[in-house]
Write a structure and sequence with these properties.
The protein is mainly α. Helix content is 57%, strand content 0%.
Amino acid sequence: MRSPKFDFSQFVDRVKDLTRLEMIAEAQREHRDAEAGSFSVRGAVARRRMGSTEFSAELGQFLYFLQQGAKPYGMSDKNWRLYRIVTEELVSKKELKPEILGMFEEPSDGGV
């Protein structure tokens, strides 16, 4: 069972109102912390069982999306729907161009 601490949808809900640069900074911090706590430290095995490595991978994909503006390969449909929420927020703040929303119109195939 995944811990709420490592729940990507809760992370998105927490950062969706931030600016793009703030989202990147928060995702980098969470990614770093999840990675650091997952290996070679006391409690690492328990954190991995709670979903820390999956959460770290999801954050890596999210960072790729925010920095490159492209869909990461192999991401889940569930997370892709969460990206749309974030993207709509960023478009409404004029941090992204509205044309980017077109990438969500295509059916998800698990990659770019």
